[in-house]
Design a protein that fits this description.
Layout (H helix, E strand, L loop, with lengths): L12 E3 L7 H14 L4 H12 L3 H12 L4 E3 L6
Parallel strand pairs: 1-2
Helix pairs in contact: 1-2, 1-3, 2-3
Length: 80
């Protein structure tokens, strides 16, 4: 009998106060993550457009809405 030991998967954490919290980095991450999930070009572009159609708070909230189940955003004391 084989016993499989797997560590629980942890979601990646993006520190919004660091370089990964830059708007362009978040948009790029959204695009590549959507593509990795097999989303259509149209779906990926729709999320990207939704992210850029507002301020930084909108961008972060849109990212979290679409990818919050698989990626955590760490505000680390910052206000949106």
């Amino acid at each position: 009998m084989a016993i499989l030991k797997t560590a629980p998967q942890k979601k990646p954490i993006i520190d919004l106060t660091g370089p990964q919290g830059n708007a362009f980095c978040l948009i790029g991450l959204a695009v590549t993550t959507g593509q990795e999930f097999g989303w259509s070009e149209l779906a990926v572009e729709g999320v990207r457009q939704e992210m850029i159609n507002g301020d930084y708070k909108n961008l972060v909230e849109t990212f979290d809405k679409h990818f919050g189940e698989v990626i955590d955003l760490n505000l680390a004391g910052m206000e949106l």
